[in-house]
# Entry
Amino acid sequence: MRRRLVVGNWKMHGNRASATALASNVAAGTKSCSGVDVGVCPPAILMAPVVAALAGSRVACGGQDVSEHESGAYTGETAAGMLVDAGCTLVIVGHSERRQFFGDTNDRVAAKLVRAAAAGLTPILCVGETLTERRKAETSGVIAAQLAPVLALPNIRELLARMVIAYEPVWAIGTGETATPEQAQEVHAFIRGAIAACDATAAGALRILYGGSVKPDNAAALFAKPDVDGGLVGGAALKAADFTQICAAAAR
Ligand code: PEP
# Structure
């Protein structure tokens, strides 16, 4: 059975004081959630106080993005090695906001994933369709295209053993509109099938998270679906009580 994972994406919110308090409250609140892996992804500049606040807890820390370059003259970027050095074990790659506002292409996301994995991080690869694409019945085609450069990587088997995928329908992110558990399951099963075509064993072990307005009141129904292995949580991750309830719903 795949161990569930719940990761909070704090996006560009918080400051030293609020991030430290949130991290401490998440650490305390999830102490008894032993049946689920938990992580939070604060803004890069708040990594140090958050890592310190999480010390000794069961909550991992992750980046929200990473450079595809190892190091060098890339102003404003964060290298995978820097995330590791700061105490991170996870990193989100290909979040729809990075794709939409910062020009992350499918190829660039694959390069980021490679760089993250090479540094020893667990990359969380985000995929998902827009509302227009869903209405045009293009969901599976869009996701297949997002996965294609990753599945074509020469060390894909090695990567599959380390990575996580998050299905995040763009129309459900930050909108309050959640995919139904059935809609999520359908796409998760499609993703697992696409991975199985490459490596059936890895597909069975790969964790596929759902993201898009996960809240305490809808988490259990989403996590009950056989191919939903946890959640990537935005808005609700900013409230320790809500995030903790979502983690508890995932624990088994
Ligand atoms: C996200 O940003 O990855 C996300 C899922 O956000 P929200 O939970 O707010 O929809």
